[in-house]
Write a structure and sequence with these properties.
two-stranded antiparallel sheet, four-stranded antiparallel sheet, about 230 residues, globular, 8 helices
Length: about 230
Amino acid sequence: MFEIDALRLLVAVAETGSFTKAAVRLNYTQSAVSRRIAALEQRAGGPLLERLPRGVRLNPVGRVLHRHALEVLDRMTRAERELAVLAAKDAGLTVTDRTLQAWLEGKRRPSKANLERIDAAYRTVRRRNLARHLLARLNREGRGTRVEIYPLNQSQVARPLRRVVEYRTMNVRRWDRIVEAWAAGDLQGLDDEWTTDVLPRPRFPVGPVRVRHQHRLRRVMEPGPRAP
């Protein structure tokens, strides 16, 4: 089974002809692109790309997988659009079944105002559903998840909000209130949970907390103001 992110990466590499450009497009490091493409090639049973003096291009096997990747990603995009419309109706958007069906079939497009309502409703529903799985993954039946905290450039952060930040690692065992605040979109509550319940106040990080779980770094949530 191929992961969606891996297929999206293959498409980006094919379109840009470069690991470096694909990394910039998808906000990866170049080394991460190389590792993921290598893992994808291992799963595919052989090389997918031809290495050229300047860049890369798909080989015959890669072109086959690329064609299917485009189809899968297109289906995912259409599925997200349909789910967004259904979520908006469940959230109270007033629309007839006939209009809804026309939206789903692409025969009509919602107005700008309805598109904004659809997007907001979908994000709310998706976040609520994701929270349940995220909580189970982070709590891991009481074992918790190890987090790594990195110093960030705070030059664009207001002076009263700047904190002394040092690299550190720790294991967080209970994520319930953190995830609850995140799912509710309560940024202040999320900030408070990290500063009062998880980290000593002088060491609270401004910026992303990255979680290492099963050898993967994932940006899970971003308490406090973001620094560039």
